[in-house]
Automatic annotation (TrEMBL):
The chain crosses the membrane at residues 28-45, 57-75. Keywords: Cell membrane, Membrane, Transmembrane, Transmembrane helix. Belongs to the adenylyl cyclase class-3 family. The keyword Cell wall biogenesis/degradation does not apply. GO terms for cellular component: cell envelope. Residues 160-292 form the Guanylate cyclase domain. The lineage of its organism: Bacteria, Pseudomonadati, Planctomycetota, Candidatus Brocadiia, Candidatus Brocadiales. GO terms for molecular function: adenylate cyclase activity. It is found in: Cell envelope. Its main location: other. This is Adenylate/guanylate cyclase.
């Protein structure tokens, strides 16, 4: 409301000046109010109305200015400064010019405001995306997400899930001091995360001494199943080197199990407005976790599902194991141990 009052007062000031000048008997009064120099302040006010970045204000300014121009024009005609026909056409011309100036200025101001808000919103969204994915993926992956203009939210897609877990870590931790447990996990996770990042995986979360990794979200690579299996093999090689360092420090060696499955899941941001987490939900995730646990029962290290094996059978050597029952399916499916 205050903006409308200010706009009205500005125009009233101009009218007062114009009428005051006309009564002073100055030479230019004979040209009429619409031609008096102070009249051009109305053009200026309309031209600057867009700086309020509110099209409604500019529209209001245009309407009031048109009414003012008609009032001044008829005053000029009544006073004999303009002939009737010429005066009416002249008044219409000035009114349309003044009103058009306000509308154009208002549109420019409105669009400028929209563009500024859009730029700010996009920048805030980018910061949010970086805050979400910066914890899970490398800087290159985050920048790729931004370049592709990925919008945050849930969607269904096919991904490959990698679960890894340290065997018998509870008993290992029981023999160590708390600070030693934390130090051991930090050293181990640092080695594994380096491998995951290098292969384009998205580190979703640490689950105690376990790791959940996604291949295919938020960025698809076209060979995500291959990347997941290659990551698993590299993790095993990295673990061998890690255990050599452990032996030098007289620390207990670690053994891990890895389960990999490819399937359709719901992936996206889940949580509240205060705290969100980019994660995956679905039976394919649960089956990957089950495959990881199966390593302990079968004495293996890397087990992949049949759906994953179909993507990598030509590039890895795998041994068929016993069929496993999958939740939601009537028939059991074969699983495979990746040897190399």
């Amino acid at each position: 409301m205050g903006k409308y009052i200010h706009t009205s007062l500005d125009l009233i000031y101009v009218v007062v000046i114009l009428v005051g000048v006309s009564r002073m008997g100055k030479p230019y009064v004979f040209t009429g109010l619409l031609e008096a120099p102070p009249f051009f302040i109305i053009f200026l006010l309309n031209a600057l109305s867009g700086l309020r970045f509110d099209f409604k204000i500019s529209l209001y300014c245009a309407v009031v200015s048109i009414l003012v121009v008609f009032g001044l024009g008829f005053y000029d005609i009544y006073s004999g400064y303009l002939i009737i026909i010429g005066g009416i056409m002249h008044t219409l011309f000035k009114a349309s010019l003044v009103g058009g100036t306000a509308l154009v200025s208002g549109y420019i101001g409105h669009r400028s405001k929209e563009l500024v808000i859009q730029a700010i919103t996009e920048e805030e969204e980018k910061k949010f995306i970086k805050s979400i994915f910066g914890r899970y993926a490398t800087g290159e992956v985050v920048e790729d997400v931004l370049r592709r203009d990925l919008k945050l939210g849930g969607e269904e897609r096919e991904v490959t899930i990698l679960f890894s877990d340290i065997r018998n870590f509870t008993s290992i931790a029981a023999r160590l001091q708390p600070n030693e447990v934390v130090s051991l996990l930090n050293d181990y996770f640092s080695e594994m995360v380096e491998v995951i990042s290098r292969n384009g995986g998205t580190l979703n979360k640490f689950i105690g001494d376990g790791i959940l990794v996604i291949f295919g979200a938020p960025i698809r690579h076209g060979n995500d199943a291959e990347r997941a299996v290659m990551t698993a093999l590299e993790m095993m090689k990295k673990l061998e080197k890690f255990n050599l360092k452990q032996a030098e420090k007289d620390r207990e060696e670690l053994r891990i199990g890895i389960g990999i499955n490819t399937g359709r899941v719901i992936v996206g941001n889940i949580g509240s407005t205060e705290r969100m987490e980019y994660t995956i939900i679905g039976d394919a995730v649960n089956f990957a976790s089950r495959l990881e646990s199966l390593n302990k029962e079968l004495g293996t290290s890397i087990i992949i599902s049949q759906s994953t094996y179909q993507h990598v059978e030509k590039i890895v050597h795998a041994k068929k194991l016993k069929p496993v029952r999958v939740k939601g399916k009537e028939k059991s499916v074969w699983v495979y141990e990746v040897v190399r």
